[in-house]
Design a protein that fits this description.
Layout lengths: L7 H6 L1 H4 L5 H9 L2 E5 L5 H11 L3 E5 L24 H12 L4 E5 L8 H6 L3 E4 L4 H13 L4 E7 L2 E7 L7 H4 L15 H20 L8 E6 L4 E6 L13
């Protein structure tokens, strides 16, 4: 595949990260040519999108319905006070373009649904799941597996963050980890913005690694970060041969 050419502005903007061993100009060209889908650009997804925009990703597809509310502002860094009452997806796109005017953004004012999941995943090379509802997560997981595209799973609750990466046919998918949505899960949950931000930064770094071949991604490994006591654990996870989503692959 032909890589995009780096302009003089690209070379100046990304000079420091291109000095990272095993990344260089080739890694930067890969990022510039890549398209990433992020479901929900709130506390988690907003940080993922911001870090990928800063790193020079070429295209972001953002799926997020609804309008900015005051309660978003403790954690959603792409939302601003002057945008209260206006569409979240458009506010996120505006902020990202301020950071990186070279970035192509597809702002979809919808959450992931049965009707749009396939179309959204088709537009991307990689999926990053930051949705708060398991219904959305399972739809993206199903489409990522069906279309054979890697997916990064980011989640947080209270002071705990969790990140894992899914490679269809090789690693457990989300349904392997959660055959059924947790019955105790509620749409509104305790959250600090700093915890969402930590999970988002880890998710963005996973995306950079998977796209460019840098380092060792969290394939088949669940990273659990307890930020209350600063305890970090890596847990090896296994595929479920009977999984209804990926069991036959």
């Amino acid at each position: 595949m032909t890589r995009p050419v780096l302009t003089q502005e690209d070379l100046q903007t990304y000079a420091w990260q291109m000095a990272v061993p095993d990344f260089g100009e080739e890694g930067q060209r890969i990022l510039k040519g890549a398209s990433v889908l992020i479901s929900r650009c709130g506390g988690l997804g907003g940080v993922v999108a911001y870090e990928l925009a800063a790193a020079g990703i070429g295209r972001l597809v953002l799926a997020h319905a609804g309008h900015v509310k005051p309660s978003d502002l403790n954690r959603q860094i792409l939302m601003t006070h002057d945008w209260i009452g206006k569409p979240r997806a458009q506010c996120a796109a505006r902020r990202l373009r301020e950071l990186n005017p070279r970035l192509e953004i597809v702002a979809v004012e919808e959450n992931v649904t049965e009707a749009n999941a396939a179309m959204l995943v088709e537009q991307s090379d990689l999926v990053i799941d930051c949705a708060p509802l398991f219904e959305e997560r399972f739809l993206m997981n199903r489409e990522a597996v069906r279309q054979n595209k890697p997916m990064i799973e980011c989640a947080m609750y209270e002071l705990e963050a969790r990140v894992t990466s899914i490679l269809p046919g090789r690693t457990p998918c989300l349904r392997c980890l959660h055959p059924h949505p947790p019955t105790q899960w509620q749409r509104r949950f305790p959250v600090f913005g700093a915890v969402s931000g930590a999970a988002g930064c880890l998710g963005a770094m996973e995306a950079i690694k998977i796209l460019t071949g840098l380092g060792e991604p969290l394939f088949g490994v669940l990273l659990v970060c307890d930020l209350r006591d600063m305890i970090f654990k890596k847990i090896r996870v296994q595929r479920d041969p009977a999984c209804q989503t990926c069991g036959g692959r």
